[in-house]
Amino acid sequence: MSRQAPFLLSPLLLLLYFPSCLVTLHCHPVQPACPSNCSGNGSCHDGKCICENGFSGDDCSIEPCPNKCQKRGKCVNGKCVCEAGYTGKDCSVVLCPSNCRNRGQCVNGKCVCDAGFTGLSCEESSCPGNCNNKGHCVRGQCICNPGFKGPNCMIATCLIDCGEHGQCKEGLCVCQEGFWGDNCRQN
Fold first, then answer.
1. Class of domain 68-95
2. Which of 57, 112, 137, 165 might form a disulfide with 62, Cβ 3.0–4.6 angstroms?
3. How far apart are CA 91 and CA 72, in angstroms?
4. Strand 93-94 relative to strand 86-87: parallel, antiparallel, unpaired?
5. What's the sign of the alpha-carbon dihedral 128, 132, 134, 138?
6. Secondary-structure class of domain 30-64 per CATH
7. Is the model's pTM score more than 0.70?
8. CA pair distance 78, 20, nearest whole angstrom
9. By three-state DSSP, how is residue 30 classified?
10. Are 9 and 18 in contact (CB under 8 A)?
11. Is Transmembrane helix among the key words of this record (predicted)?
């Protein structure tokens, strides 16, 4: 039976392969390092970062996006890239159409138009008193229905000519003394 000599490592080889052996003779293999020491957002295991909740990336440096971008955008390197129609750090702000054309304020995604403007994006000029429902607004001016006139269609007019012996008052012909009829021509 042959005897083998016990395998002995030289101290230099021990230090080269197991640097932790320098102080003690209990040698342990050195753990591989993690990139950027996991950026302080995770723990290192066998050379790989195990990231804390929300953080990601090989070195746990990518921060989570706030409120998961409200499901209205994508998280890119810890920042929300919002879908069209949304803005804000977490895509929670609803944008207004055409930014209200700078003629109003955006409140919860709807335009509150400045005086003189109307429409979903404040694109139309408004008319005084909305023409009092006696006409329609075209480019900021009232086009009055028959029987009405004035800048806001408040003045009633007579649908017939009152003639030379009558005067239209509040939509009716008022005849001079001694004349009568729809157009004040009878005496």
1. mainly beta
2. 57
3. 6
4. antiparallel
5. positive
6. mainly beta
7. no
8. 38
9. coil
10. no
11. no
